[in-house]
Amino acid sequence: MGRRRRGRGRPRGAARNAEHCGAASVPRKAAMNERDALLNEFAQGLRPMSEGVAWFDGLREEEQPEVLRCLRHHCVQARALTEDAPESIRRAGLRPTHTPAVLLSRGRIDEQLGKIAGLEPLDERRKAFRLLIVLLSIADRRRRDRFCSDGCGHWWHQLSQTE
Description:
Layout: H1 28-43, H2 49-57, H3 63-77, H4 85-92, H5 99-104, H6 109-117, H7 122-147, H8 159-162
Helix pairs in contact: 1-7, 3-6, 3-7, 4-7
């Protein structure tokens, strides 16, 4: 008789990475949905980057790293590649010498995205936000073209239809 696998401390049916986008002051499900939708609207160009940066700057200091971790998660889920770095840097309006750009260009993208999400100074966080939004845009566009061109059930690919 095989061993029965136990849950990993999360409620039945809870998302494996539900912690990635939650905010302590808002119920987790509401925070994820609103924040995820907003980040995807920025990435899809449904809202301008200037609005995104203003929104990010308006967050409390402790919320900004949460948003960057959330974006990191979305980029990983969208299968961002190291090869996406040059175009992401260019479209985000960053110099290749800016810290987030240097990190993204170094390879091992999962590891580098974690470092980018953990940047401390506000100006570095702002650059990281812009870069991760653009990286998500590029990776998700590729995913949409390859896997979702005949339609899909991803709610974030339906945002433009709900506006």
